[in-house]
Specification:
Layout lengths: L15 H48 L9 H25 L5 E4 L6 E4 L60 E5 L2 E4 L86 E3 L5 E6 L5 E6 L7 E12 L14 E2 L3 E5 L14 E12 L2 E7 L10 E3 L6 E8 L5 E6 L4 E12 L1
Antiparallel strand pairs: 1-2, 3-4, 5-6, 6-7, 8-16, 9-16, 10-15, 11-14, 11-16, 12-13, 12-15
Amino acid sequence: MTDHQAPPTPYGQPDPDVRELAALVAAQAAELATLRQRIEAQDRALAALVGREAGTAGQDDTEVGRTSDATSPAAGDRIARRQLLRRAGAAAGAAAAGGAALSLASASPAAAVTASGSGNPGGLFTGVGGDGVYASTDTALSAGLYGSSSASGGRGVHGLYAGPGAGTAILAVSNELFGSVGLDAIANIGVMGTTAGTQTDSAGVLGINAGGGIGVLATATNGGNALRAEAPTGVAMRAIGSHALVTKGTETQLWLDGTAPSPAGSPIGQRGQMVVDPDGALWFCTTSAPDTRWVKLSGASTAGQLHVLPSTVRIYDSRPTDPPLTVAKGVLANAAERTIDASLGGTAIPAEGATAAMVNLTVTATTNPGFVALFKNGIPYPGTSSINWTATGTTIANLAVVALDDALQFTARAADNCSAHVVVDLIGYYR
């Protein structure tokens, strides 16, 4: 089926032919009413003709010695076929009278009817009270409706809804397993678009919104994927607009899945690209080649986003009479270690999954020069310090970030031959 041809237009821009075609459809709407009356009149004439031919068919059968009962199944089939062929011819004639040059020809079993036309549009199918075009197939990997175009800017299938209120230009529904596309099996495909074009503006499926609506709407109501785009090379999906892509989901709004290697240190990349590597880390390209720069946004080995509390919370104080009173008390001295709960029993950090804490660490009532180290609970002392002092009777504070275990705990350790009271205020946490 030769589609309506139009000059190529950039994606995201209104197609000037859309308005032209809308005007054409509106102008032909009046003609359709007249055409319908003509077709109904032809149907009445055909019915009378079929009645006469049924009698003639009975006489012909009698002459050759066969059953002449016009009501027999065989005769009924012959009459139905004649009537169907005459109605098809009448419909084609009416369409041509409306300005759509259309020819129908029988073809191979893979294409029961081939339609071609040289008008503008080449073929016009209009349903009055029903479907304008209904296409189906019972053959695996075949298409009920197939459209192709070899012209630049052409469209294999072009659908336009120009009526008032909500409507659909092209509706595609699938209830069966399609088979496989690329490397993964995909079931129940409503619309599938492919392109073999080499130009950057080639599109398997193109949706244009020229009036405040939606260019392409994908909806999944049975737990499947509303929209899935795959490309062995090149761009699988390109969205352009003031709101180029809007996603809604009851479980996830955006699912990035793939087998791309980690782009760390890669000289290849375009600004704005995002990659999920095999370890589940999410990367974002901030600078295009030749000065490509990739930034890791998240991953199993990253701390996560810093969440600053509305106000600092004192989660530990070793002094006996100072809150919180539910924690272990007493000076920290002589290489002793103490476990501190950063969540303060679940009241300081509101949720599980925190990877680290930002704290203000204070030591007071010190003896001798020394230090206190903070580190992740459950690991050996790493030999570092988080705060240092040089004299007895010192009070000093320092900012520190410390990793947390799964129970949101960390460890505080004093140096040898020294002691101090320890106070920890929580500023925020990473998650």
